[in-house]
Fold this sequence. Notes:
- The chain is mostly helical.
- It has a domain at 54-177.
- The protein contains ten helices and no strands.
- Helix 3 packs antiparallel against helix 4 and helix 6 (124-143) runs antiparallel to helix 8 (152-159).
- The protein is flat.
- The N and C termini lie far apart (75 Å).
Amino acid sequence: MLITRADADANELAWLAPAGLILLALTTSFAVIDAVMSLDPTFASSLFGLGFISEIGALALSAATLALICSSSPDPEALRQLARLLLALVILWSYLALMQLIIVWQSDLPHEVAWYLPRWRQGWNVIAGLIVLTHFVAPFFTLLSARAQHSPKAVGFAASPFFPSSCWAISACRDVISPTRHTSNR
């Protein structure tokens, strides 16, 4: 009886999942724009919210993958599927981050470039390089191998270094927000 009721609940709520994901994406994107992009009011990016959502998704998926690996007997097929999903999110996050950088670099607008400048000074460039290594290079090249997708150690290696890079975006803002930054030329 319990299994039948669970299946009925799942069928009744299946229509709610797409609307819930759209609502989650919109609210998360607006929250990130409000909380992080508002720290530097001169910067504008249409990719920022989606990039942050992909980062959160990769972090959540890596936590789920590590939980599966730490279980007593991880299912090899589930591990392979999670590894493939993690690879897809790594590619998505990398693409969005690179496209945002290329668009800002190509447009060469001073108010947009000013967002990146403090993040490449005072040691933050080292943090940015570590984020590229731990968020893209190591997971991407590890998870490309079908053999590695079946190995709990390799998938764990690819999933373990995911820490939010939002500290790079937010912490460097203390260098951005200053009285001289917001003075206008009259």
